[in-house]
Predict the structure of Focadhesin.
Amino acid sequence: YLYKRHLSTEAINQSDSKLSTMAKTKKLSKDVRDKIVDLHKAGMGYKTIAKQLGEKVTTVGAIIRKWKKHKRTVNLPRPGAPCKISPRGVAMIMRTVRNQPRTTREDLVNDLKAAGTIVTKKTIDNVVYRWLTLMMFFQVVDVGSTWTALGPKLSCDSRPLVVKAIAELLALLPQLTVKTEEYQKLKEQVVSFLWGYALNKEPEVASCGYKALSEFSEAAHTLLHLPEQVRVPLDRRRSSNVPTTTQQRYVVVINPWSAFELFLTSLVRQEMTQMPRGVYHSALKRGSLRSDQGKTVAGIPGFMLKTYEKSKQPGLKPGLAAGLLLSFDLPVQTDRDGRPINRFLLSRGRSYQQMLATLIHEVNIQPSEWHRALLLPQAWRGFMSRAYHAVLQGRRAELEMQQKQGKESPEELQYKQHCAWLWVRDQLTGVVKSAAKDSPVVQGNSILALSGLAAVLAKYESNMPADTEGGLGVGPEILSTSTWLAMVLDTLLSIVSSSYKPRGQVFPWFLHRSYSGENTASAIARSCAALALSLVVPVLVAWHKDSVPQVIATLRAGLPGSPTADDSQAVQFHSGLALGMLLSCLHQERLSDVSGQKITELLMSSLDTLEACCFDSNLEYNAGCVLGLGLVLGALSGSGQTEHRARVSLTLDKLLEALQGDSSSQGRMLQEVLAYSVAGVGVAAFSGGVVDALKAEEIMSALRSMTEESQQTPGFSLALGLVVHGLSSCGHGKAEDIQPRLLDAWIKILLAEGCPTMQRLAAVNGLVALVGSETGILQVSLPTFGMGLIITFSGAIGLQSNSACLVGHLHLAHMSTSHSRTAVPQDFSYLPEKSVIRSVVDFLTEAGKKGPEFAHPSLVKTALGPLATVGGSYQYPPVNWSAILSPLMRLNFGEVVQHQCIELASNQAQSSQSASLFLGVWLSPPLVHSLSMQTRGHLYDNLSVWMKHVSEDKLQVYVETLGLQQFQQDVRPQRLAICLSLLRGLAQAMALPNPPNTVWAILCTTIEKIFNLFFLVNHTTRNGWCDQEVHLYVGVSKCLSELADTEIDRIVQVTEMEKTGFILAHLTSQGRVPLLGLNDVITAVLRGWSSHKVGWLLLQTFYQCRLAASPNTGVSKRMEWLLELMGLIRNVAYGVTTATDFLLQVFAAAVISWGDHTMPLLLGVRTQWFPWQQGSKPPGLPHALYGDAVLAEQSVSLCLLGLPHSMRQLLAKEPWREHFSHPTDFLSPFCTAALLALKSSTDFKKKAVWTRAYGW
């Protein structure tokens, strides 16, 4: 038996009490029905009757119609209609089944019939199933044996009630987990059975199945549970995209979307619960090397390092250094348990620092090598990323060793651990600084290394978890990240342009400016600085988005043909290439999705300028522009926007026409660059669906013919290898046929010593392009081994040097991934293939590209809903949320999908900068006006979650400007819900500890302006929407309670009695302000303000003060205030009759409220301001604040009647008893005055009465 335990008496009673709820009825009593008819006869309408009695309008209408038709309001008993089962009947069924398990339904029906209760078999089944569920929950019966006995019979019953009961029964199985083989078999059977329910064509049955499956773990579900139409054929299951494709197909064919959304939410929550910390950084460290690539590619770093150390040929050193830059990666030494050894981690970090200094001096930069110029920025970024993480590991290992040795205090070590990532930044910056003041080549490498470090640092910080409250800060001795990154950006712009004026400090290591202001940096340094600007795109997007126009303008000024273009050919080439790389990176970062229309227009106008330079026949050095244009078009091919796709297709035709045109007017370098650009754009366009297979084949044929005609041109071979590899990986049949033949031919040429060196060099370039960026290589050991032989034994130094660089490029292409080139990854491809989150995001990305025609809005809602729901409790791994959500917001997927996108972005804004940027775009006009009121209300409700993570101007516009518009008099009645949302969000945001000063200023200004917008409503509208506005006053009071006392005194001036009176009364009753705050209200009444309703507010406040636990409402504070009030009454008692009456009533109200609990309740005082929830007010109260108007006006005057009783109760308590004389002396003159007022009466003239009155 798997589970068996005796059920206690308490459990049985608990189950009986749960089942007794079946006897409840929703029918109205006969008295209520008769009253409805009477009110209708009196001339009242349906809505008026429903409002007065607190019933639904539809219910009132049904009763009146029944009375008109049948002349009665109650139903007559119908023959054969079963009555509802009573709690006693339910208990009898349970006892009978428990004592006699073989009892049938017929027996139970007969027994109940004999007892006077007529039920059906369906009711019996319902009771029995609920009883069986409780028995399994309390582990009374054995689940395994019960399901074995009942499963075959129950599985044949398709009635919805039975299906629901069975699903609820089986959903308890995960709560009763035991580690036995029988349990595992039972769970497999149950899961398969429930999947049968889930795949049922009946939506009600499928919903029950999905709800039950949501209780099971993700590991319990397999591909065999899916329907046939979404399974992948067996021969394709080894493909890397099988899980994602299968899950996407399944999303398309599901039927009950709401139930499947619940199931999907469960899977996403389980995955996030088990998500390891730092999964993204771990994926970057592991790289993307597939197991089927063997040890050949993985052995490239060791081979390159060994060859570099043994080589004694000066001409080979630069090539080997370039190869090391692309592939250098030291292994991590581990112990027997697989844990890294700290001392080896420290040594590994130092080795990276030494190699950095070496590569800065050894890597050669040739302006004429266009392919090397394309690779150098990526190479330095990749190396600096590996170096940064290696030195960071070494630093943490060093601190751990110091902690074990006990050399420093734990607090100091903790602070150093917290600042380790900044310490590594400064260490690597120092290495770059020590080598910067050397030759132009060394300066160029230093610039690229510094820029690569900035890109790595920006990426590392943007993917760090959100800081928790009370976390460790950074001391003033460490330069902040934003300041350091701004110095890097200013340094690069100062090197590129002599007219640029830095906003702050720059790194003074580069001699880039003379005393006269001229730019003295070398051409290589200026070229490298231009290329390095593309590396700092993550910095521009995250920290300095306002500097994007300046950077683009600087590069556009250096384009060929520009009046401010540099005289150097190399600088003009690199300016065009740098602008293309910059625009490509900005499009990959989806900057246009998180920026305004001006940035989008700037990007497109810059592309127009770049394209004009490419096709201008009068320009001489525009090869860099052609190469840069190819990069931009490749980035636009995957955007999914129609205008971008049309532009890519048109420009590709122009590039292909230029390539096939007259070659006599073109230089060899321009021809190679044209071929490379056509190949790259053609592959990207075919992959993105911009061009068809025939166009792609035309491009491949043109490049093939050019390569065959010029077999000694490396650029043509590189372009042909690129287009064949790209098209074959996209499934192009002709490319797949050509690829193996090209591979064999180029390998033979490479290994043939008799072939010309240039032809062999072209073969090396073709091989690298053919297999280097391939993700599913069949055989890479042969070409890589062949290039290794060339590097080691060939006598051609140039061939050896170029082969070494290309081998390093081969390794970098295999180890890098698409998500490692941007500030944050564009998708979750670094997560495991079985990840549900990865599949859902891939589906949403595809839906955003293809629109509602591909995925129905209900499907998108089903996929996006779980991400938004779980995102409120968990922070997802790094991803570019803007790239995923922006297309869904632009396309016509409906308001629900828009709401889910905003909800997800607001929840992730605290940990994702892309989410905060995306949210900032939709917080300001005009996009904010396209959001539904529900979405805008949700943003106000969750103001405390995202307010710190958007720019101040966006926050001010959305909260202060747009928020105040909701409180205008003409629109407030229709937008009460969104007004309440704003006040709730403000209260939560102002309650947070230590908000930023700018944010706090915006919040304070907003609540002050909202307070000033409120005004007294005319009495003619008091029974209208003013009743609902009371909750707005409460919201304002909660917000004001978070301000300082001085701010409350400044804002809450008694300029309007009802508004200010309630606000001060509510603040005082909560103990936020002292009782002295009521003096302003009382003084205003004494000065002539109307006391209408004020007495009721004060009476309610006095009673609430007694119940509140606050120092301001303690007994001593109340006693001091009451004594002060007595003194005030004594001062104004002579001459002002009206003021004296009001003050006496206030005094009596205070005494009654603080004397005992019974007297205030008799006068109608409530224990809470609003004892009922909003929208459920009792029908007898016409106003939510005052209740009955007559009672509100007379309650304070009635307090005088209860004053003697309450005064005796009050003075009998401590510490009131100590001040017994004060109330006595205070009341004595009033008693005497009352007696003397009777002196004109007949009885008073008697001598005995006169003597008693005057005490004679």
Q: What stands out?
A: Residues 1220-1256 form one domain. The chain has a mean pLDDT of 77.
